[in-house]
Design brief:
The chain has 595 residues and is α+β, with helices and mostly antiparallel strands. It is built from 7 helices and 23 strands. Strands 7, 8, 10, 11, 14, 15, 16, 17 and 18 form a 9-stranded antiparallel β-sheet that branches. Strands 5, 6, 9, 12, 13 and 19 form a 6-stranded antiparallel β-sheet that branches. A hairpin with a 7-residue loop joins strand 5 and strand 6. The protein is flat and about 155 Å long. The chain starts with a strand and ends with a helix. The relative contact order is 0.10.
């Protein structure tokens, strides 16, 4: 249930809405009144939200306090949040709510980012252009340092009313559904986590005397584990130019995870008659009527596991495992099982190393008498552990828990990461050379679990994990043969390619020589034909000349008087004097033209 009361000097007025549902009757008491944007408001509100579906999680909502500072619409805001110094567990942010006036007329997209690493988004020590002195993760070029934890599209139907921004003429408040928000943890004991909201939203100027990373005021809030919302900066477009960022306060609500009172809401057939208080209680309202779904009883669970880590090298004199390595294995198994995907219904895990030893296998003669296959190990040396894992389990279906499968699946899900994290816990040379383990686990029944709790030192683990043996002689020989065959194939392939290349070059050279010889023959043939044509033309010319000379002589002998033989015709073109000419002149000209 949620109780909201707006109170000033005048009395608080309220309206009560009661809606009946199939599963439960939810009572909501709302007290409201109108304000102007100039009034100083005191809003006391705490929302208790239950997320849908298992596992059930509940969230409290904190609302920002606004004074007379003006509201501004921008394209995004970046800010940090801080856990309380006294908070030893940290806190998870499960949702944000903000005002989106633009969504009243059109669909608006939004994205919410969280800085991947803890701390402020920029060094609090700023330079002359507002850049962080040591580091600065603002800007599109630094977006790879952030992870998207929520995104979606805001429609008008998604908007609701809220008193955090009184200047709105119609509902413009949007709260991100928890199912669309990846819960993000703020480290404990004053830890810092930075967020960036990218959308068209409302923010406001900081209150008097407050600077970047100062705590914002929250209305009516006294929860000792509530995180602190710090003053941020308007980040329109998330520009890389730091001077464009202006100090602004986030306007809206944030929600953080808290423990649920029960797994189902109380059923009450009549509204509460108690008068609303000025500040909400930190615990939910109780009812004399029992809850609809009682909390399942806690059942003990246990499993035994055997881990075998193969060792490339082993000292036969070292039989026991150092206590430092045993503690590291115990802690790593506990952490891995606790964070496993199938361990969400378990809690309070404890791991105990019952036995730990080093098994060194000496080299043995194999049946193969070849020189290269002698003195090889027939199985691998290993570091072996026997453990018992206990915990508690809430059975919702009445079936006994299968903790053995949970242990196996948790370790085998990422054996490489398990081994890497384990080596980081201890610098022991024995542990540093260990390889990925072989895991075998089995769920303990009630009698075995009681036996272990009564005499843990005398308990014997029945399962055995046999690590994969070293490659046999035959396998090693086959691998060598395969490698040699691959090398031979590669060499033959290279030789074939080289031979093909040489044949191609030889054929190309032969083709060039043939073309050259052909061109030479054609050239010689053309020269011969040209000589023949020249001699023929010369012979015809000389023959023509002889015939012309003979014809002229005959014409000369047949001439009459002083007139030329072509008297009746036109005179030669080379004559420039007037006609008629003397016969002597034509005789002189004719003699000059002879060869």
């Amino acid at each position: 249930m949620s109780v909201i009361c707006l109170q000033r000097k005048t009395r608080c007025r309220g309206r009560l809405f009661v809606a009946t549902f199939v599963a439960a009757i939810i009572l909501q008491v709302v007290h409201g009144r109108k304000y102007t944007s100039q009034e100083l408001r005191k809003l006391q509100e705490k929302e208790y939200l239950v997320d849908e579906g298992p596992p059930i999680t509940c969230s409290f909502g904190g609302t920002t306090f606004q004074g007379e500072a003006g509201f501004t619409q921008g394209e995004g805001i970046v800010f940090a949040m801080k856990s309380k110094d006294s908070d030893d567990n940290g806190v998870k942010i499960t949702s944000f709510g903000f005002h989106v006036p633009a969504a009243t007329s059109q669909n608006v997209d939004f994205q919410v980012y969280a800085l991947k690493q803890d701390g402020y988004y920029a060094d609090p020590n700023r330079g002359i252009y507002n850049e962080g002195s040591g580091y600065d993760y603002r800007g599109i070029s630094q977006l790879d340092k952030w992870e998207m934890i929520s995104s979606g599209t805001i429609r008008k139907a998604d908007l609701i009313e809220s008193a955090t921004y009184l200047s709105a003429n119609e509902p413009d408040f949007y709260k991100i559904p928890p199912r669309m928000f990846a819960a993000t943890e703020i480290p404990p004991n004053g830890g810092i986590r930075s967020f960036y909201v990218s959308t068209t939203l409302i923010y406001t100027d900081p209150m008097l005397g407050r600077e970047i990373n100062d705590e914002q005021l929250l209305v009516g809030f006294n929860d000792p584990v509530a995180p602190e919302l710090l003053v941020g900066e308007g980040a329109s477009g998330f520009s890389d130019t730091k001077i464009f960022y202006k100090t602004q306060q986030f306007v809206g609500k944030f929600f953080y995870e808290t423990e649920c009172a029960t797994e189902a809401p109380s059923l009450s057939l009549s509204p509460s008659t108690s008068k609303p208080t000025s500040s909400p209680s930190l615990s939910p309202t109780t009812s004399n009527i029992p809850t609809k779904s009682p909390t399942p009883p806690v059942q003990p669970a246990g499993a035994e596991a055997a881990l075998s880590f193969p060792l490339p090298k082993c000292d036969p004199k070292q039989v026991t495992v150092p206590q430092e390595v045993q503690d590291a294995v115990s802690e790593q198994v506990k952490e891995t099982v606790t964070n496993g995907e199938d361990a969400e219904d378990f809690e309070n895990f404890e791991t105990t190393v019952v036995d730990a030893k080093v098994r060194c296998d000496k080299r043995r003669m194999t049946k193969d008498d070849s020189q290269h296959n002698r003195l090889l190990q027939t199985r691998s040396s290993a570091m072996e552990f026997s453990l018992v894992i206990t915990g508690e389990y809430r059975s919702t279906d009445g079936k006994p828990p299968d903790l053995g499968s949970v242990v196996e699946d948790s370790i085998n899900a990422d054996a490489a990461k398990f081994t890497k994290d384990l080596k980081a816990r201890s610098a022991s040379p024995l542990l540093q050379q260990a390889m990925e383990p072989k895991v075998e686990a089995r769920t303990l029944d009630e009698d075995e679990l009681v036996e272990f709790k009564e005499e843990p030192d005398a308990f014997e683990v029945a399962v055995i994990a046999i690590s994969s043996p070293s490659p046999s002689t035959e396998q090693s020989s086959d691998k060598a043969k395969t490698a040699l065959l691959i090398v031979i194939l590669i060499v033959v392939g290279v030789m074939v390619v080289l031979a093909a290349f040489l044949l191609f070059r030889h054929a190309e050279r032969r083709a060039v020589e043939n073309r050259r010889e052909k061109m030479e023959r054609i050239s010689e043939q053309r020269v011969s034909e040209l000589k023949e044509d020249t001699m023929k033309q010369q012979w015809e010319k000389e023959n023509n000349m002889r015939m012309a000379s003979k014809s002229r002589k005959q014409t000369k002998n047949q001439g009459q008087g002083d007139y030329p033989p072509y008297y009746r015709g036109a005179p030669p073109q080379h004559q420039e004097y007037a006609y008629p000419h003397t016969q002597a002149h034509y005789q002189d000209s004719f003699e000059d033209d002879e060869y």
